[in-house]
Amino acid sequence: MIPKWSFLAKAHASVADGRKEIPSQVYVFPALRLDSQGQPIDVLSYRVDDTGALKWNSAAPLGAELKTIVEKRLAQIGFQVLPFTALTESSKDHSVTVFNLYYREASPSSDNPGADPELTWTTFARVSAATFPQDLDPNRKLDLINQEVVTLFNGREKEASVVKRSSEYLLDFIGASRDWSESINLLQ
Questions:
Q1: Residue 65: which domain range?
Q2: Are strands 178-186 and 5-15 parallel, antiparallel or unpaired?
Q3: What are the φ/ψ torsions at residue 68 (nearest 5 degrees)?
Q4: Of 79, 80, 95, the residue nearest 134 (C-alpha)
Q5: What is the CATH number of the domain that holds 80?
Q6: Angle at which helices 159-170 and 63-76 pack, to 10 degrees?
Q7: How far apart are CA 46 and CA 42, in angstroms?
Q8: What is the pTM for the complete model shown?
Q9: Is the dihedral of CA 10, 69, 121, 59 positive or negative?
Q10: pLDDT per residue over 134-170, tens digit each?
Q11: Which candidate, 102, 91, 97, 88, places its Cα nearest to that of 40?
Q12: What is the domain count for the chain?
């Protein structure tokens, strides 16, 4: 297949020192948007569904969709995706990997000052993961991974596709610690 378009990815992946294994049971929170300083714009909120289960929501335009994309990719590469209730009912400390997703909306790129600013865009995606003790005390969490990608692409209308593909792309490097750049082809 001939790619319809591509984007340039400058990525970083790291695993916390001393962490060799990532628990195969996972919970994924909906994505949050970041501002230009890397601070969350959105906050997570929750609701209780008809069955009494707690469901987390994000006001970010791609929040729920990125959660679904990441869950599907994690399942494809061998992880077992759990509902939030399974995380809260876990009887063992640090037995579930909790993923947090972040992205920054597209902005004109400053990486190529000679390019037409209407055609050269950049965005950012981060996937981080940690484990928690049974009581979910955030002060006792153990960070596992942090993976980030800055993408450069042409045409703002491609933003949602680039953010989605970037988040999914980072999952291919779980367990790696490295920095790299490469061109990513999109066939859709």
A1: 5-186
A2: antiparallel
A3: -65, -45
A4: 95
A5: 3.30.160
A6: 40
A7: 13
A8: 0.90
A9: negative
A10: 888 999 999 999 999 998 888 777 888 889 999 999 9
A11: 102
A12: 1
